[in-house]
Design a protein that fits this description.
The complex is a heterodimer of chains A (275) and B (305).
Chain A (H helix, E strand, L loop, with lengths): L2 H16 L4 H13 L10 H7 L13 E2 L6 E7 H7 L15 H15 L3 E2 L7 E2 L6 E3 L9 H7 L10 E8 H4 L5 E2 L24 E5 L7 E9 L2 E2 L3 E7 L2 H4 L8 H15 L2
Antiparallel strand pairs in A: 1-7, 2-6, 3-11, 4-10, 5-9, 6-11, 7-9, 8-9
Chain B lengths: L6 H4 L9 H12 L4 H7 L2 H10 L4 H17 L9 H14 L2 H12 L11 H18 L11 H13 L3 H13 L9 H8 L4 H10 L4 H16 L1 H13 L2 E6 L3 E6 L2 E4 L5 H30 L1
Antiparallel strand pairs in B: 1-2, 2-3
Helix pairs in contact in B: 2-5, 3-4, 6-8, 7-8, 7-9, 9-10, 11-13, 12-13, 12-14, 13-14
The chains are: A alpha+beta (275), B mainly alpha (305).
Chain lengths: 275, 305
């Protein structure tokens, strides 16, 4: 039996136990996957993904508890440069090529701009609309370690090495500006349904934030740090900083989503079902 | 729970075993969309590969075997037989990002055959998109002109292809810009005027280029284009002025001085002295257009009736 399928079944049971209000929607998405011939949502084909992205239940993200990110100046996010180009609305005409050229080229252009600006650059220079992400939402944390210890911090956020792009962008959103203009939510089991790495919080605890799975030690997974979900954010609230993460930056810190990590995740999710 | 093959045992990650065969398998999966979720998460097919190489246990070996695998996959690729728009698009992403040598001849061959290519299920928009993407992918092979000593046969065939696409209206602006970038087309000697006459779409890019060109080329050629605009009538003149406005430049007719273009700190004097024609177009242009529109409406309603 595929380990991915085991993970999916465990996650489904955890969802029923910890977030029962989402059971109906979870079941509907599961039915849809079966209809498309997919056994789990983590490695679907392009055709299935296209159909999933057109489904209202799969796209019903950001319906968790409202959340106010902890006292911090900024919220941070690590993103591939290609995703930013893809999910920014109102891309300015001069940067229309960002969406079609290789990621490395877009990254180099942004890197040059960042060097000229001596650091952060406003996202609004490039796009006038909003930033969203896969399924219309983006994931953020208050961990500023992403700026200095990027690889370790990404693992703390539940990102295995194969989800950490070489041509990366760190985004920051001013927490004070974001309050009142955005609805931040606690990630639900529906928000995380497509991801093999996701910690399902317990609704009965009325959590103030989501919790990541700390992957830094793949043989000993544990709860990580707080995370938040955001619906589309106006670009003037966001600054970006290109970060280069080549092989040398990863050496000795590689945690791939492989058989070993999947086995550890199985144990982690099983433990969540224990009484 | 139904029994099915365990992906972990069948599919050891390429990062652990970066052999050519293992990469070929991974590339085939990527091209056919089998890893869509993973690709979406990492921001694109090219980034997926770069990240897999960076995470490999033996990075130089991973890079070398990836390049060999890509050459092998491209060698057996026939664009005209692509099963879908997505498959062609994915392959083009690889060619654009990694420029495998076999890809160049594949692309030139594909583009030389024109618009008969493409799968039956493709829409005209999808075909057009694939042609544009193919041109972009070719650009990666020659981002700049090689030195005179190294004007290779591939470069010459690329230039021939661009000249061919210069004559296709929807690609003429792209082809013209590339030919300029590669120093295969000069703006002097009335070339700009001839180009504009045959390809009105290039007007915008031409003006932008000329504004930044050194004197006397900029003055001579802008004068030439300006005269073409005056000859063509109010619409072209309006396009000329709007293009100037888009880069915060403007044209002024000063008595006794002739037309001048103000562009930043630059003043470009145009050699044309046809102030009368300019004023006539400005005075009568909109009215004439209104009259033409009225005539069009009358003709249309008569035909409809």
């Amino acid at each position: 039996v595929s380990t991915q399928l085991v993970i999916y079944e465990l996650r489904r049971k955890t969802a029923d136990l910890r977030q029962p209000r989402h059971k109906v929607r979870f079941d509907l998405i599961a039915e849809l996957l079966t209809k498309f011939g997919e056994s789990q949502p983590y490695s679907v084909t392009a055709s299935s993904l296209t159909q999933l992205l057109a489904d209202a239940n799969f796209m019903a993200c950001g319906e968790g508890f409202s959340s106010a990110p902890a006292q911090a100046d900024y919220l941070y996010r690590l993103s591939p440069v290609g995703s930013i180009a893809k999910h920014c609305s109102g891309l300015r005409a001069a940067y229309a090529h960002f969406g079609s050229q290789p990621a490395a080229m877009t990254w180099r252009e942004l890197q040059s701009a960042s060097v000229a600006a001596k650091g952060w650059i406003p996202l609004s220079e490039y796009a006038s609309g909003t930033l969203s992400g896969f399924r219309g939402v983006t994931w953020w944390s208050t961990s500023s370690a992403i700026l200095s210890e990027t690889i370790d911090a990404a693992h703390l956020l539940g990102m295995p090495s194969n989800w950490i792009p070489v041509h990366a962008i760190v985004l920051r959103c001013s927490a004070s500006l974001a309050h009142g203009t955005r609805r931040w939510t606690v990630p639900t089991t529906i928000d995380g349904i497509h991801s093999e790495v996701f910690h399902t919080t317990t609704d009965a605890d009325a959590p103030a934030a989501g919790t990541t799975v700390d992957l830094r030690d793949p043989l000993n997974l544990r709860e990580g740090t707080q995370e938040y979900l955001a619906t589309p954010i106006p670009t003037p609230l966001i600054d970006i900083l290109p970060v280069d993460l080549p092989a040398s930056a990863r050496k000795g810190r590689t945690v791939l989503l492989d058989a070993v990590l999947r086995k550890a995740l199985t144990a982690y999710y099983s433990a969540m079902l224990a009484p | 729970m139904t029994a099915e093959p365990d992906r972990d045992s069948l599919d050891e990650r390429v990062e652990y075993h970066p052999t050519v065969d293992r990469w070929v398998l991974e590339l085939e999966r990527l091209i056919h969309g089998a890893l869509a979720m993973e690709v979406d998460r990492i921001g694109g097919i090219d980034e997926y590969v770069s990240t897999a190489i960076a995470n490999s246990r033996d990075v130089p070996a991973a890079r070398k075997s990836f390049r060999s695998a890509l050459e092998r996959v491209v060698w057996s690729w026939h664009p005209e037989q692509a099963a879908s728009h997505e498959e062609a698009s994915n392959m083009l992403s690889f060619l654009e990002a990694f420029t495998p040598s076999t890809g160049f001849s594949r692309l030139v061959g594909f583009l030389n055959k024109g618009f008969q290519l493409g799968t039956a299920s493709e829409s005209q928009t999808e075909r057009s998109d694939i042609h544009r993407r193919s041109l972009s992918a070719l650009e990666s092979y020659f981002p700049a002109a090689p030195s005179e000593d190294h004007m290779s046969a591939p470069f010459k065939s690329y230039v021939r292809l661009l000249r061919k696409y210069l004559k296709i209206p929807q690609y003429s602006d792209y082809a013209a810009n590339r030919l300029f970038d590669l120093d295969q087309m000069s703006l002097g000697h009335g070339n700009a005027r001839a180009l504009l006459k045959s390809n009105p779409r290039v007007l915008h890019d031409l003006i932008i280029r000329l504004l930044d060109a050194p004197e006397p080329e900029s003055s001579t050629e802008l004068s030439s284009i300006y005269e073409v605009s005056l000859d063509d009538g109010a619409k072209t003149l309006s396009d000329f002025e709007q293009t100037l406005a888009s880069v915060k430049a403007r044209i002024k007719h000063l008595p006794g001085k002739g037309p001048l273009i103000f562009y930043g700190k630059k003043q470009i004097k145009l050699s044309t002295s046809n102030r009368g024609q300019y004023l006539a177009l400005h005075r009568w242009g909109p009215r004439t257009h209104g009259l033409e529109a009225k005539l069009d409406r009358l003709t249309t309603s008569r035909d409809d009736g």
